[in-house]
Amino acid sequence: QVQLVESGGGLVQPGGSLRLSCAASGLDLDWYAIGWFRQVPGKEREEVSCISRSGDGTFYANSVKGRLTISRDNAKDTVYLQMNSLKPEDTAVYYCAAGAYGSASYVPKSSNEFDYWGQGTQVTVSS
């Protein structure tokens, strides 16, 4: 059974930092690109970042470039999202998702390219 479990969310003041983790089980992470998405009530789910299987390809949404860094540790079956200089508009539920691809460098950029999803972790940026 495939499981993706997000952790690391919470309440942080504007300008603060959080590190989200996505722990995978039931699959060989070496074969999966991993994306991070976020969603607020009433809005569509937005992809904020993604990392290829090999780790040498990444994607960041314009709204988070320079503030978020995605990384992966396949030995630990975990992908991280380091979030710095957080803003109130970053408040959302953050989800990780896994998509299997033959190309090690491919970076999927839409939600329908992912096969498995986690349950999400709440990030709230507020003073």
SSE diagram, text form:
Blueprint: E1 3-7, E2 10-12, E3 18-25, E4 32-39, E5 46-51, E6 58-60, E7 68-73, E8 78-83, E9 92-100, E10 116-117, E11 121-125
Parallel strand pairs: 2-11
Antiparallel strand pairs: 1-3, 3-8, 4-5, 4-9, 5-6, 7-8, 9-10, 9-11
Features:
single chain, 127 residues, mainly beta, seven-stranded mixed beta sheet, four-stranded antiparallel beta sheet, 11 strands, 0% helix, 48% strand, globular
* Helix segment tally: 0
Poorly predicted regions are none
The quaternary structure here is single chain
Largest sheet: 7 strands, mixed
Question: What does the average pLDDT come to?
Answer: 96
* Anisotropy-based shape: globular
Number of DSSP strand runs: 11
